[in-house]
Amino acid sequence: MKKQAYTCEMIRDLLPLYVEHLTSPETAVKEVPDGSIDFEKVSFRYSETAQIDALQNVTLHIPSGATVGILGVTGSSKTTLVQLIPRLYDVSDGCLKVGGIDVRKLDLTFLRRNIGVVSQETYLFNGTIRDNLLYAKPEASEEELSQVPGMNRKAARSVREYFALEAGTTA
């Protein structure tokens, strides 16, 4: 667990080196009325010299609270589409809004702390369920942890064992 945490810390330290050009405006908005997401004629290319857009003229409305699956063949820019929402990249053309506000006007830290993405690949670290939860939120209180389904399963020493117990099998 310590090795994975150290690796993640190293990655977090290096990431700002690659995204320095994305900043919050001086008068950044730190609140949105709702969690709706709107792509309005959004196009994206990875560089100014790229000859082909990775995304072209995408218009999409996702209501606040909706669960959405993005489907497509390998290389169809599904990940790129999702990476635009927390401003890992900025749109090349068009406008992307969260709560009706252009994401480029939002405080970058606020935006990223309030966007959740679930990848199709799941990654759990060795260790207990509690360890994995604390990795995601180190400041979580014992009360918060007790609210997570399965945390009362004292017999589960690892995530794999927990899911085996839930399925009625052995790990």
Overview of the structural elements:
A hairpin with a 2-residue loop joins β3 and β4 (101-102). It is globular and about 50 Å long. With 171 residues, the chain is of the alpha+beta class. A four-stranded antiparallel sheet has the order 2-1-3-4, with helices on one face. The chain is built from six helices and four strands. It has helices at residues 2-19, 78-84, 108-113, 129-136, 142-146, 159-167, and strands at 37-44, 55-62, 93-98, 101-102.
Structural class: alpha+beta
Strand order across the largest sheet: 2-1-3-4
Beta fraction of the residues? 5-15%
Report Rg: 19 Å
Return the average pLDDT rounded to an integer.
Answer: 78
Helical residues, percent: 25-40%
Task: Give the biggest beta sheet.
Answer: 4 strands, antiparallel
Which residue ranges are poorly predicted, with pLDDT under 50 across at least 5 consecutive positions?
Answer: 153-158
3D shape: globular
Number of strand elements: 4
Order of helices and strands: HEEHEEHHHH
Number of helices: 6
Termini separation comes to 19 Å
